[in-house]
Amino acid sequence: MLMTQYAKMILELINQSGGHLTAEQLFLELKKKAPKVVQATVYNNLNTLCQEGLIRKMSIEGSPDRYDKIQKHDHLVCYRCGSISDRTFDDLTSALEKQLGKKIISYDLKVCYLCPKCREKDKGGII
Amino acid sequence: MLMTQYAKMILELINQSGGHLTAEQLFLELKKKAPKVVQATVYNNLNTLCQEGLIRKMSIEGSPDRYDKIQKHDHLVCYRCGSISDRTFDDLTSALEKQLGKKIISYDLKVCYLCPKCREKDKGGII
DNA sequence: TTTATAATTAGAATAATTCTAAAAAGGAAG
DNA sequence: CTTCCTTTTTAGAATTATTCTAATTATAAA
Question: pTM of the prediction?
Fold first, then answer.
């Protein structure tokens, strides 16, 4: 079956959310709608959805793998609070291929910065 | 103590290796020289070295965190065999800052491609 | 319906990492 | 060189993340 009930719900959760969700977060969300679901089902479906190319897996050091929308975009990661947000920078594919001299499949760009919230907190601080 | 015996050895292992080593790999390497060391020591020291800014942590989805040299470089990841290698592409810092309109701390670029070995294997294959 | 296949479950198993408390090491001060 | 204090290391339990296994349930096809 290409799209089972849970696969469909998980895909929707990912696409309707801000993305970057861990399996655990997805499990908790999914349980609200389907209280009987178990973690293994979530992991199974996430793996299948990845293989089918309907979602993508990503990871940030020190935290479990996350699952994200497939549409190409880059990530901003706050070095203070760890929050992740989407931001699409100019496409690098051809520049990278030119430099490498080979075809590339894709690339993954994470930009480390201080998010607006944390920046705000810093203002007026002693340090 | 800024540089304890194990911290020093771990730092050397990382800097003298090709990088991208997992805590487990480092533990096994370190045991060759210091058979009595335990995993917790490796994790402790890795965390300390990261905080001190002497090494950096990185991660590839689906595998444990890895530890790498601090010198700025990008990564090539083979989508077939998962091998990781270093490759420095043109620096993106100012281009990214210009687009974002904010200072950035750093960025992390992973390029997904087919490594030479895997490419070789593919030649002559039926598919 | 039977039957075959695939999805889901429960729970054990495995990995990755952190935590806790005790033991060992290092260094500073007397 | 001892005593004392601090930091590092150890052992092992605890936690978290993920996969695996086998039984059960659902789905769809014949």
Answer: 0.92
